[in-house]
Amino acid sequence: MKRRLKAKLLLASLALAPTFAAFPATTATAQQVVKPSEEIVLSIGRGELVTVPGTMTDVFVANENVADVQIKSQRQLYVFGRAGGETTIYASNARGDVIFSANIRVGNNISSIDQMLALAMPDAQVNVATMGTNTVLLTGTVAAPEDAAEAERLVQAFLGEDANVISRMKTATPLQVNLQVKFAEVSRSLVREIGGNLTTFDGSSGFRFGIGTGRQLGGTETWSPQGPLGVGNDVAQSAFILPDGTQIPGPAVDSNDSTTLSGLGRLFGIDTLGALDLSERLGLITTISQPNLTALSGETATFLAGGEFPIPIAQGLGNVAIQFRNFGVSLSYTPTVLSNGRISLRVRPEVSELSTQGSVTLNGFQVPALTIRRTETTVELGSGQSFMIAGLMSTNSQNALDKAPGLGDVPILGNLFRSREFRRGESELVIVVTPYLVKPVDAKDIALPTDGYRSANELEQLIAYQNHAGVSGAERPKPTAAVGDEAPAPDISNADPAAIVPNNVPKLPKPKRAEDRSRGRTDRTADVDKGGAAAPGFSL
Question: Could you tell me the pTM of the whole model?
Answer without folding.
Answer: 0.44
